[in-house]
């Protein structure tokens, strides 16, 4: 992913998994794409054609940004999506919570249902961790988290997030 991001000069972009694999083959023809990824793309296309899913679900998001100051006000979780965060440059701080969401918590669904994101506000008891260049984390569905926080002033972060719907998690080796 890092080689592709560098060679294709991806700074802020979203590619669905099939598009990403096609682009990797064009930009890095010497790289052999994992057969599991190709199986996910094939199964997802079949599911879309058979109307088992409303739209493409699995994607890769490339991003570069200056991290924000640590803030515990807003967090998020996904009901059906695994997030795989990979840091290419800089150091990024994450907040997360492993316990269940309190029934009284203030939540708000993302207005775009395809994002499978529910925002939660003013929760307590977050844990904090940081990832450095070359490190990553897998965040399972329903784990409350938020990323993009800086470790120091003017902390430039370059990363990607791979989003895999739980229906395809076993093919990806996540479940």
TrEMBL record:
Matching InterPro entries? NanQ/TabA/YiaL, NanQ/TabA/YiaL_sf
Instruction: Note one Pfam family from the annotation.
Output: DUF386
- The protein in question is named YhcH/YjgK/YiaL family protein
The record lists the organism as Psittacicella gerlachiana
